């Protein structure tokens, strides 16, 4: 399966960095949604 990121980044290192950054951002969004849901439930 071809990696879709390959055409956007110059090197494999940049490609890997973009993937790990995306995972970190996704994790932070999930944590923020859980925290907001908890905060609303406690009110």
What structural keywords apply?
single chain; 43 residues; mainly alpha; 1 helix
Characterization of this structure:
The protein is mainly α. 72% of the residues lie in helices and 0% in strands. The chain contains one helix and no strands. The chain has one helix spanning 12-42. It starts with 11 loop residues before the first helix and ends with a helix. The model has no long low-confidence stretch (mean pLDDT 81).
Would you identify the regions where 5 or more consecutive residues have pLDDT less than 50?
none
Which range does the strand content fall in? under 5%
Mean pLDDT score, rounded?
81
Could you give the distance between the termini?
47 Å
Using the alpha-carbon principal axes, give the shape. rod-shaped
Q: Order of helices and strands, N to C?
A: H
Would you count the extended β strands for me? 0
- Work out the helicity level: over 70%
Q: Helical segment tally?
A: 1
Global Rg: 16 Å
**Biggest β-sheet, characterized?**
none
Structural class: mainly alpha
Can you lay out the helices and strands and say which pair or pack?
Elements (H helix, E strand, L loop, with lengths): L11 H31 L1
Q: What's this entry about, in short?
A:
Helix content is 72%, strand content 0%. With 43 residues, the chain is mainly α.
